[in-house]
## 1
Amino acid sequence: MVNIIAFIPARGQSKSIPKKNIKELGGKPLIIYSIEVAQKCGLRTIVSTDDREIAGISYEKGAEVIIRPDNLAKDDTSMFEVLKHEIPKIEPKPDLILLLQPTNPFRKSIHIKAAISYLTKDLDKFDSIISVEKIPEEYNPYAMILENKRMVFRKLIGWKEKIQSWFTGEKYIKNLTGFPINQRILRRQDLPQAWLPTGDIYLFKTSNLKKGNIYGDEVMIMETEPSININTEADFLQAEEYLKCKENL
């Protein structure tokens, strides 16, 4: 029997939306959506937070709560740091972790159950599974030109143009990357299929954390429909509109 837990990380503070994780959406705190879908799947549900109010709401809903230290609740704290610190505390030790971000409230239990089924059947071949959505043709990475700020200049702009930009404020792109523009695929029929993680589901082996990431070496992708990921006030409004539309169906 594979031991699986749902792990929900929820900081108290948010720059984009104050107290985002417990802001009411459709009459209930945002984090409740993730707790409820995990419970619907019959999973032991653990919330990691630095905030007493989030802890209280989660506990009342039936989730277990881990209070994380303040140094793991900063803006620049990575999810991996949180997982690496918190998961070893959990007993009995889980075999798989289902990471549920509160900012994705509309994930479906049927998708979670499908992800669990796919991964547990192939644990000898795969280390994780994530949910993805198809990228529309016009946003295919093979048709894009990207700015890469980390790479050394491929072509340094002339000093004359550079000095002129200091006075005019005119912007210029220092370095371009992505699929080479002289090799771009122009016919949409020839574009390879591309996917983007939805953020809804990250299911992975606990042992992956020792490798320095959650994915491991072999990652399975599971295509689902596009999802709403709430990071801004505009996203919140979109989520509210989505719920209104569902009520009117």
## 2
Amino acid sequence: MESLISEQLAQYIHDHTTPEDAIYQRLREETYGQLQDPQMQVGRVEGRFLKMMVQVIGAGRILELGTFSGYSALSMASGLPADGMLITCDMDPEVTAVARRYFDESPWGDKIEIRLGPAIETLANLEGEEFDLVFLDADKENYCKYWQAVIPMLRPGGVVLADNTLWSGAVLDPKEDSDHGIVNFNKMVAEDPRVENVLLSVRDGVMFARKR
């Protein structure tokens, strides 16, 4: 997505964030060199933010909607304890095959399970399970549906992080279905009494919500 800050400031933020390991650099290079829509991959700053959130809240069970090539799942899994687990969901077997290769190469691959298929169906199959952290980064038109499905699965004190919630500024003048999907989602979260939230300007916007 288009950055809302200058290239110089984005570079400054990047340079003052803990560096990524070599496996992430190679994953980024393959994503940008071989996959469509590589900008969907989270970057070094957001990846580090996700890992640190896992560590700060002591998450042991994570649910991710939207795997893509696996950078975000790999980042979060690296922050899990030895007995932690992460379920990541996607529709695309091509991009998740790339993700699986890097998961298997990493020290954290045995903590990550990929589930292929529509996210709504996967969520229905997970009904009754409990998670400490949920990361939403799938189709924006369905963010509201995903929200309503995952909040009951979240433990009290658990966290939802939703990506792209500034949508390159389109939230200020929504036109496309995806624009309206994000606008409706942000409004729903802000008005939901089950959570407290803050909308962060990390990368393309991250909605940070904590279940009461």
## 3
Amino acid sequence: MRPSTLKINILSILFVLCGDVYALDTSAQEKTCLEIGFKTKTAAFGNCVLELLERRDSAIAVTDPDDAICRNYGFKPKSNDYANCRLQIDIQRHRNLQQQAISDEQRRQFDAQLAEQKRLRQQRASEALMDYADRLTPKPAPQSNQIITTPGGKIVNCQTVGNVTNCF
């Protein structure tokens, strides 16, 4: 086979395969048009199918706010301008979500800093209160214990509290 013939065959196969992938299923609309009374392979039947497809698409579009926005700007579905409009809305929505995530993280960090500052203030206040209580509490007199040996060899235990010494 010649290279150009091979290329043509490959391209033909690709078109057939791609045609199947992007085929529009109109069987439900065709069935409805037949039930209404249109005859197949007529212009009226084709118009009926197309009208039902447009109604289906517009019914779907009613529930899609992005579609309504793009239509309000005058863009027609299935046009490049309409696709660009939907793309811009999607990109902006993604940016908004990223900004919201950044904002949420900053808020979390700010709240954590506030909580840490509050904890430190409470700790300092507690320490100051403990220091104040220590200053108000009377200190016990210094105390010491001594063992004394008398000239007669007797061992006596003495305890001194403040200015008073007791031996026993």
